[in-house]
Amino acid sequence: MAGAFRFEILGAVRAYRGDVELRVGPPQQQALLSLLLLRRNQPVSMAQIVGALWGDEPPARAVTTVRTYVWRLRKLLEQGAASPTALELAGDGYRLTVPDGALDLCRAEGLAAAAARATSDGRTAEGARLLAQALELWQAEPLAGVPGPFAERQRVRLEELRLTSCEEHFELALALGRHRSAIPGLVELTEAHPLRERPYGLLMRALHKAGRQADALAVFGRVRDLLIEEQGIEPGPELTEVHRRILVGDPVRAGTEPVPSVAAPEPSPEPGVVGAGTEGVVPAQLPYDAPDFVGRRDQVDVWHALLTEPVRRTPVVLAAAGMGGVGKTCLALYVAHRARSHYPDGQLHADLRGNGPDPAKPGFVLAGFLAALGVPEDQVPDGVEDRGRLFRSLIDGRRLLIVLDNARDAAQVRELIPGSPSCAVVITSRSPMFDLSLTSQLLLEPFRTDEALELIGAIIGRERLAAQREEALRLVEACGHLPLAVRIVAARLSARPSWPVATLTARLADEQRRIAELRIGTLAIDAVFELGYQQLTEAQARAFRLVSLAGGADIGVPTAAAALGVDESTAEDLLESLTDAAMVESAKPGRYGFHDLVRVFARQRAESHDPAEAAEAFGSLLDFLLATAASAFPHAIPGDAVANAFGPLRSVGLEFGDVHAARAWVVTEIDGLMAAALSTVALRLPGAAGDRLAGAVDLLLAVSPFTPAVWYERMAPVALALTEAAELSGSTRTIGRSRMLCSGIALRAGRIEEAGRHAELSVAAARAADDVYTLRQALNDLGLVAQFLRRFEEAAACYDEAIALAHNLGHRSGAAVTSVNAALARVRSGSPAEAVPACESALLVMDELEDQVGAAYALYVLGLALHGVGRFEEAVVRYGEALAVCRAAGLREREAQVLYRLAETLRRTGRVPEAVEHAAAAVERCEEACSERDRAQAWVAMGRALADLGDTYRAREQLEQAHGVFTRLGLPDAADVSELLATLA
C-alpha cells in the first residue's frame, strides 16, 4: 500500500490519500474496513468477518455482501494495481496490509507509550506533552456510526483507553503543579463519567492543592452518596485514602507510584540529615481485601504462621506463583491483611506490572517506597543501588510488611527485599522464583470443586446455590475451576438474580464463545491470558498456539514436535519454556497440557493469527498420529490387510517392538487421539477438511483393537460426531468407515441394536464406495449383531460373505476371526460339535501369525464348543490356555469372558467352590474392563454357582442384576435369566 494513505477510527471512520479524503462507503462497509484496520496485517477469516458485522444472525447473502464490500475497498485502495497488494485474499478471508503509522489509533498508542517511558525516566513535562498530543487524535466517539457487534466491543475498549490516557494526563498535570488549570477539565470528566472514581480523586487533590479544602471534601461527600445510591457500595481504597489525607492535612501524593515532580522543591533539611522528618510516617498501602475470599485454607494458615512468627533470623519472603486468574493477588492480600497488625510500622504495596509490556523499574518502585516513608523528593538518590541502600537503612529494625504484586522475575524484586529480619515480603508472579532465596513458595492450582462452589455461594447467596447445586457443579467444570472465571460467572449471576444457573452453563458449553462469555465489567479472562501471551517470544507464541490444536488434556513431546515441525529436543525446550511462563502445565516428564480455558484461548489465537499455518500444523499432527496408530495396529491383529488401507500415510510415526509397547502408547494417548479426531470437526481451518476427517476416522479405527468396552461413553460421542460430519461431506468411503467405527464401539459395549443400525449403514456405504476392507469388517459386525439376537441364519450369511472377501484380500487373520465368529454362532444355535474343528483350524492360523488376540478368542470359543458337547475337562484345559494368553498379552476384557465361562464349566463338573471363585474374579475384572453385557454374563455365572451352593438369596441378587441389564439392552438373554429366577422362587 502506498505510504500516502492514512486512516482514522478515533471518531468517524475516514480514509485519506495524501490530503484528499476518500469515500469509505456505507456504514456496513465501514464496519468491514474497521475490522481489517484493527486486525491489520493479520488474516481475518470469512466466519470472523460475518460474525463481526452481523453477529449470530447474518443475512442469507452475507458472504456475497462481504465480497462486494471488498471489491469496493480494493478499488479505493489499490490504485489500479494489476493484483491486490494491500487487501489480499487469506484463506477464505482477507488480510489488509497497513503500516502502523497510517492509523490514528496506532499513533495515539505510540504517543501514550512514549509518554509512559518519559514519565518513568523522570521527564514528566515531556510525558505530559506527549499525552496531550495523543489525546488530540481522539475526535469523537470511536468508530462513530459503525454498526455490528465487533464495532460495539471496540468502542467500549477504545473509550476505556481514552479515559485512562485522560486520567494519566491530569495526573501529570498535578505532578507539574498545574492544579488550577486542571480543575475545569476534571469537573467535566467527573460529570461525564459519574461512577468512575479516579477522576474524583484527581479533582479532590487539585482542589486541595489550590487551597479549596472544603470543596475537595464536598466532592467526596457527593461521590460517596452517589455510589451508595447507585451501586450500594462505599468508595474504594484509593479515593478513601485521598479523603483521609485531606482531612489530616498530609500532602496528597500522586498515587502509589509517585511521578517525579518538576515543581519547585521544598526546602532541604539541615545538611547531612538524610531522611529528616521520616519518623512517625506509617504507610498503609494495602489495597482492598475481597470480602468473599474462600479456599486455600492450608496455604493461608502456613503463611500466617510464618508472617506472625515472633522471632526469626532473616526476613520472611513468601512467593505465590501460578497461571493468570488462579488467585495469586487475592491470596497475597488476604494473608497480608490478616497479618497487618503484626507490622505496626506500616505496609507497602506495589504493582510491578510484570505481566505487561512496561514492567515497573525497581528504582521507580523504590522512589515510591521512600516517598511513602517520608523521604523528601529532592533527597531520593538517583541510582537504584543508592535508593535500595537508603530504603534498607530506613526500615532497619522496623516491622514492615511489603507486598510486591505481579513480579516478572527475581531480578525485578531483589533490590526491593529488605535485610531486616523484622520485615516480611509477599510476592506474586506467574513464573516460580526458584532463583530467589525464599521462606516459602506456593505453586497455586485452580480451585477444588468445594472451593469453587463456596465462592459462587458467597457471591450469589447460599440458598440460591443449594437450590441449583447440580447446575453449579457443571458451571464450575466449564470454568475449569479457575478462580477468576468462577468469580466472573458468579458476578454475572449475582447481577441477574432471575437467571437460572443453567442459562450461563449453556452459554459456556460452546467453546467458540466460552472465552467471550467470561467477562463482566473490567474482569475478563481473555485480558488475563492475553497479558501472558504478549510476553512470549515469537517461537514460544507459535508453539503455544499450534500445540493447542491437538485439543487433548495433554500432549507428548513427539506429537508436539510433529505439530511444530521441529525435532523433539527443540519441541521439549519450547514446552518447558512455556511451562516456566505458566502458559502450559507439566504433570509428569514428557507430558504437557493446558488449563481448559487457556487451551480454548490458544486455539482461538491459532485460528485467527494465521489459519493457513494452523491448518498445516494440525494436518502434520494428525498425519503423525495416524502413522503411529497404523504402526500399532499390526501388533494387535498381525497379518490384517486392513493395516494397508489406512491413510494415505504422509508421515513417519513411532515404531513399536511388541504389542505391550503399542498398547501402552494407545492407553497413554487415547484421550489425545479422541480429542485430535474431534478437532477435525470443531476447528475452523482452511484446506482439506475432507482429508482430515477421513484421517481422523482411520486414526480411531487403527487404535480400536486396543480399546476396552468401558471406554464406550468416551469414544461413542466422538465417533458419532465424525459420522455426522462424514454424512455432511458426502464421502461414501468416510461414511462407511465412520459407521463401521460406531458399530465396533457399540458391539464392544454390548449395545447390540445400536451396533446393528450402524453396521447396516456401513455395509451400504462400503458397497457404494467399493471399499472392500470396510465391507468385510462391517459384514462381520452385522453377523455378530444377528448372532447376539439369535438370528443364526442371517449371521451365517454375513459371515460367509465376510470370509470370502477376506480370502480375496489375502486377509488370513480376518478370515480366521470371522470363522471363529461363525463357530460361536454354531455353538449358540445348538451345533457345538461343528464348531470344534473350525476353532482348531483357526487356532493354527493364529499361532502361525503369532496373533495373540485371535488365539485367545479361538481358545475361548473352542472352550465353549467343548463344553457344549460335554467334554468339560477338555474345555477347562482350553480355558486355562486362553487365560494364559490373555494375561501374557494384557487382554483383560477377554480374560473376564474366559473366567465367567470357565466358572460355568467348573460348576457343571461339580467343582462349585472353584466356580464361585472364578465367577467372582470375572465380576471384578468386568467392573474395570468390560461392557454391561459382559458384566451381566458374569453375574449369571455367579448366580448359578451360588444357587448350587444353596445361597439362594445372593444368587437371586446376582441374577436380578443381570436380568435388568439384558432387558435394558434388548437382548434375548433376559428370557433365559427369567427362567432361572423362576426356578429359585
Task: Explain what you see.
- The protein has 985 residues and is α/β, with parallel strands linked by helices.
- Helices cover 63% and strands 6% of the residues.
- The protein has 43 helices and 15 strands.
- The strands form 5 sheets. Strands 7-8-9-6-10 form a 5-stranded parallel β-sheet, sandwiched between helices.
- The model is unreliable at 252-279 (pLDDT under 50).
Number of strands: 15
What distance lies between the first and last C-alpha atoms, to the nearest angstrom?
90 Å
Strand content: 5-15%
- Which whole number gives the mean pLDDT? 87
Task: Furnish the topology, listing elements before pairings.
Layout: E1 5-8, E2 14-17, E3 20-22, H1 27-38, H2 46-54, H3 62-77, E4 87-90, E5 93-96, H4 104-120, H5 124-136, H6 149-175, H7 179-192, H8 197-209, H9 213-231, H10 237-248, H11 297-307, E6 316-321, H12 328-339, E7 347-351, H13 362-372, H14 384-395, E8 401-407, H15 410-413, E9 424-429, E10 440-443, H16 449-460, H17 462-467, H18 469-478, H19 483-495, H20 501-509, H21 511-517, E11 519-520, E12 523-524, H22 525-534, H23 538-547, E13 555-556, H24 557-564, H25 568-580, E14 585-588, E15 591-593, H26 596-609, H27 611-636, H28 659-682, H29 689-703, H30 712-729, H31 732-748, H32 752-769, H33 772-788, H34 792-809, H35 812-828, H36 832-849, H37 852-868, H38 872-889, H39 892-908, H40 912-929, H41 932-949, H42 952-969, H43 973-983
Parallel strand pairs: 6-9, 6-10, 7-8, 8-9
Antiparallel strand pairs: 1-2, 2-3, 4-5, 11-12, 13-15, 14-15
